[in-house]
Amino acid sequence: MMQHDIPVKRWVAGILSALVFSGATGTALGHDSAENQNVPPQTVSVTENTASQQNIRETRTMTLPNGLDVLLIHEPNADYSAASIAVGVGTLNDPPDMPGLAHYTEHMLFLGTEKFPETGSYDSFLTAHGGYNNAYTTSDETNYHFQIQHNAFEGALDRFSDFFKAPLFNTSYAASEVKNIDEEFNRNLRNDYRRSSYIKRLLSKPDHPLASFGTGNKNTLGGGYNQDALQDFFNHYYSAKNMKLAMISNLSLDKQEALAKKHFSGVPGFDVEPPAMDSDYRPSLENKYRLLEIEAINDTKEMTLSFPTIHLDDYKKSAPGDILSSILGYEGKGSLLSKLKQEGLAKELYAGASSYHQDLHEMSIRMALTSKGMKEQDRILELVFSYIEMLKEQHVQDYSFKEKKALYEISHRWQAPREGNDYIAALSSLMLNYDPDDVLTTPFLISDYEPAAYQKLLETLTPENMLVTILAQRLKTDKTAPYYGTEYAITEIGGVAFEKLKNPPKAQDENMTYPAENPFVPYHLKLQPQDTETSWHQNRIHPVISNDTAVIQSQFDTKFNIPRVNMSLWIETPRTSDSVRSYILSRLLDNCISESLNEQAYPMLAAGTNYNIQIEHEAVRVDFGGYTKNLDKLVTLVAKNMTACHIDDATFENLKNNMRNNILNSQQENALDRTEYFSEHLFESLYSDEDKINTLQKATLADVQEFALKLFENARITGTAYGNWNDKDVRYAANSFIKQLKAKPLPKNDKSDPKTEYLMAGEDIIFSTRVPDNNNALLYMIEAGHASRENRAALTLLNSIVSSDFYTQLRTNQQLGYTVYSNPKRNGDYLFLQFNIRSRYDPSYVQDAVQKWIKTALPLINRLTDQDFEIYKETLARKYEESEDSIKGQNDRIFALTVFQRGDFEFHSKMAAIIRNLTRQDINDLATKLFEDSSTPTLSIQIRANDNHQEPPKGAYKTIEDFKNRFAIPGV
């Protein structure tokens, strides 16, 4: 799958992405909390989408007497209520002798409070009322957040607030929770990003907090027996003055204010003195640069240039990090990436500014290299500094600022109303760095063109201030990092190599130029009025094209009132998967299309449109989305390239290498991910990795070009569009795409359903294999019958009832693994209830524990009160009735109903009705069948780590072929 969307890069973009943009980079920033003062509430109306009078939100800010800053949002149309507390403390605040303490504190807060001492009661309450929660710890922040149905909001706030008033820090769970931290650490031991990030931080000044080991493990946390350190840390940093609370609900602001005062006024408020942070964390060298080489787990070839840079917090209104990132990361004609691609040195380039802390900022350029690029690293660095020197000489042009300013204004003005867990967590996090009164506007807008700030940032992009990190395999290393055991080498490079970077070639001599003005930026974007002659049916889902080749459904948006549209096309063609050769060629064609379009399409993508091509079983899915202006041009451009492959042989070989590496790297995935891989391959007729690689090696550019001409010879196209396009706009765009394919109708019988394996009654099968992970995994599957709507509804309800207890018993109490969950799953025509655990324990031991828990599940269900059962039912039914929160989400829903539910647009309401009609006897019958009937088949997929020397159980299948041939008669 190739996705084509331009990530916005801004120094707080990691948070902004949750609110406005997608794919952004950056980290949360900490900020000193307000003084202890009782500030009277301020109520304002914030129109988050000025075109939509349905979305005028009332907000209120206040500071409680204990110093807690509060943001309240009244959203009458919200599906859920949500709340978040951001605490201005993170891993940089860990004591030097106890790395991981901030992270450990986050974990321990969930294990009971004085008012609600029972472990797991918070999760159970949320689950029963359609909610969920999460928490995270960054370098300078710890964030706790949840969402829940409106009628249970106060009950959740009561439990949530007690975390910060009276946590038990239950000593009986102290050691076991350290085990969970250790499991989390072990889960990431083979994660190249974690391994390399830690080593880069290690290169900070000795004793600088940035060099700390933030995750922690059982060794750094002393096994969990130093509870005094935990209590001292909480007492030192968990002050109301060091916290920010954000809430959103359909409740009035007065009611929300009353809830905030009632439940959070009791949080202790005391002064918190944040430790000083040396911003010069990695000093520049003299006439040298640093080269860090890190041995990778995956077959990757990556170069990252990182530069400690200016305090971006001082330039919020001019956004130098964002502006420079978009220029350095430009991919159009004359760009740095285009030059690197022309010389066959790199395949991808990303630039971004990020922050570890309000005093610690960094600018980075990351490149995915080719094999040639690995050999010519000096040449890559020369070209990078040629481009940087050009920017220093030409300065940031005012039109670059105007474009970025316009895109931020457009995105802020024309945004769908956001709500829920992630949204409110992002807002509370922003409150650590922005005044609460400004948090809904200021972070999303820039106003000042400040050439001096841009130049100041550029002046930090020098060779002597640079760390070059190479992440690849088969490097020469001489050091081993603590904790992760990563092999690496650090060298200081001077002499001729350094001087070449101080005096690089002129960019114009290398055919690199400053990005031209973008003609696709939609400065004068406005809503398109609905066609009055056809509005009576445009408000409903209806066909705009219907013939033997294509059926396209459309619906004009009257909910969000945003000048955006999404269109999705499902092109049925058996040639994507009718052989392993077709499988490989179709996916190579996907990559060829993307590569050949990159320079042409990039200005459109940068201006707020996107496309995505995904190869499916006997189909190709193509998605378009973005602002209505110019999207039709993008559709036409992509369509013209769907049946061609305009790249050279060298680029094609790089694409083949990419695909090969992706296949091989998938085998390095963690054990739990591999259980999903094997469950799919056991039940479905999928091609093996070995067959894919062998076929890939033989593929030529000519093969792909020939395949492209035949792929869509016969096709059936089903599509949907939703947004601010009238019928004629949808018809024009869809027809422009369809005509380019020149497809003839696909015969109705020219489509095969994938062959699916089934389990026989009474089978209890174990499949076992080994993977290069340091953890084991178990996927235990119980067959739950045919995939009818009635069975699906009952199984989903059953899982919602038992999932929380499964987690509490096996994760919290028995400590069997960090990742523990259950879920319903469809394989072919059958449903399964799955139990998933990633663990340091052997899978057979874990399976025994799962089976013992299963014996308790039916009594657990029987103990439910009728009232609780009705709550579970209503919660699940409402999930089906929830509306989508974006134009893309609504189009995806219509698309799924059109393609996979055969146009049954009442599917969700029908499912809600089925759920509401379920009885306790229905669930008891299903639970009895799954948990107590010996004829119900099961499949256990046991994945063992290479260092686990325990043998699989006798009779376990060890290959996919053996599993599929288990009924074969020898010699027949």
Description:
- This protein has 972 residues and is an alpha+beta fold.
- Among the domains are: 289-418 and 439-510, Cytochrome Bc1 Complex, Chain A, domain 1 (2-Layer Sandwich), CATH 3.30.830.10; 535-745, Cytochrome Bc1 Complex, Chain A, domain 1 (2-Layer Sandwich); 764-964, Metalloenzyme, LuxS/M16 peptidase-like (Cytochrome Bc1 Complex, Chain A, domain 1).
- The chain is 38% helix and 20% strand.
- The protein contains 31 helices and 27 strands.
- Strands 1, 16, 17, 18, 19, 20, 21 and 22 form an eight-stranded mixed sheet that branches.
- Helix 18 packs across helix 22 and helix 25 (789-813) packs across helix 29.
- The longest helix has 27 residues, at 580-606.
- It is globular.
- It starts with a strand and ends in an 8-residue tail after the last helix.
Spell out the blueprint of helices and strands.
Elements: E1 2-4, H1 13-16, E2 42-47, E3 56-63, E4 69-74, E5 81-87, H2 101-108, H3 121-128, E6 132-137, E7 142-148, H4 153-165, H5 174-187, H6 192-202, H7 227-237, E8 243-249, H8 253-264, E9 289-295, E10 301-308, H9 320-328, H10 336-342, E11 346-357, E12 360-369, H11 371-375, H12 377-394, H13 398-413, H14 420-431, H15 451-458, E13 467-472, E14 479-480, E15 487-493, H16 495-502, H17 535-538, E16 542-546, E17 550-556, E18 564-572, H18 580-606, E19 609-616, E20 619-627, H19 631-640, H20 649-666, H21 671-683, H22 689-698, H23 701-711, E21 714-723, H24 727-741, E22 744-745, E23 764-771, E24 776-786, H25 789-813, E25 819-827, E26 830-839, H26 843-862, H27 866-881, H28 887-900, H29 907-916, H30 920-931, E27 938-945, H31 960-964
Parallel strand pairs: 4-8, 9-13, 17-21, 21-22, 23-27
Antiparallel strand pairs: 1-19, 2-3, 3-4, 5-7, 5-8, 6-7, 9-15, 10-12, 10-13, 11-12, 14-15, 16-17, 18-20, 18-21, 19-20, 24-26, 24-27, 25-26
Helix pairs in contact: 2-5, 2-7, 3-25, 4-8, 9-15, 12-16, 18-19, 18-22, 18-23, 19-24, 20-22, 25-26, 25-27, 25-29, 25-30, 26-30, 27-29
